[in-house]
Specification:
Pnp Oxidase, Chain A; 25% helix; 30% strand; 231 residues; single chain; alpha+beta; binds flavin mononucleotide
Length: 231
């Protein structure tokens, strides 16, 4: 065989091998819901959101905690940096992921404050309902929380696709069966955080793309139910 023919043969074999490798390689896995990104300005620092998702552990029985005790020792009741805010009634409610919130005492009442942009579908529910709930979830619901924070109830049901189940308290407030902690709240104050002169520089930039300002809702915590994963 001439040297040129031998080279051509070698090239052909290499090409066949390359094609076989490309065809047999597994398709890339679909991108996971993933951690919060720059597109989620209210997301907490990535450490917790980046935690690998564990299979949720079964939860123990519900335990009622006094709202005053709950705000004095928030870690003990299972508050998380990323939670779900829900408002409305059965058949007409909405929920979204929140990363901005705070618990404390105001006017001698145990309170939680949440911050909802006027661009959110949930905002309308917060405006028309005096009550809302804040739910925390055990490990294993990170992607459900991301789903609820990246889809709008305006576009259709997102609770089912997120793998969550809506339930309602005795008072008729929405919460989620998978939650580990439910704070039931009654709004006692609200104000729109739209005084740009007072906003820190980095907060001012959040609204450059047209996002409406956040409204701060302060809710008196009227009931707290919590439970811990079974071991
Ligand atoms: C981790 C995370 C935290 C978020 N925190 C807030 C928040 O505190 N306030 C807010 O207005 N939006 C927040 N968002 C954005 C809303 O959850 C998101 O826009 C959601 O799709 C709104 O849903 P809705 O239109 O059904 O109300 C957050 C999103 C993520 C992913």
């Amino acid at each position: 065989m001439k040297a040129a023919n031998f080279l051509n043969l070698l090239l052909a074999v290499a090409l066949v091998l390359l094609c076989a490798k490309l065809c047999l390689s597994p398709a890339p896995a679909p991108a996971p819901a993933g951690p919060a990104s720059a597109a989620d300005p209210e997301a907490p620092a990535p450490s917790s959101a980046l935690a690998a998702e564990a299979a949720p552990a079964p939860l123990g029985p519900w335990r009622d905690v006094s709202p005053k005790d709950a705000v004095m020792d928030p870690a003990a009741i299972g508050l998380r940096d990323t939670m779900l805010l829900a408002s409305g009634r059965k058949g007409d409610f909405n929920a979204m992921t929140i990363g901005w919130w705070g618990t404390g005492v105001l006017w001698k009442k145990p309170v939680v404050s949440v911050y909802v942009s006027g661009s959110r579908h949930t905002w309308g529910f917060m405006e028309t309902n005096e009550t809302f709930t804040v739910c925390a979830f055990p490990d294993g619901y990170e992607s459900a929380l991301m789903y609820m924070g990246r889809h709008s109830g305006r576009d259709g049901d997102k609770v089912g696709p997120a793998g969550l189940t809506a339930a309602f308290t005795d008072a008729g407030n929405p919460f989620f069966s998978e939650a580990q902690l439910v704070l039931e709240c009654r709004r006692i104050y609200k104000t729109v955080l739209d005084d740009h002169a007072q906003l820190p520089e980095e907060a001012r930039r959040l609204y450059d793309n047209g996002m409406l300002p956040h409204t701060m809702y302060v809710g008196e915590i009227t009931a707290v139910r919590t439970r811990v994963p079974k071991h």
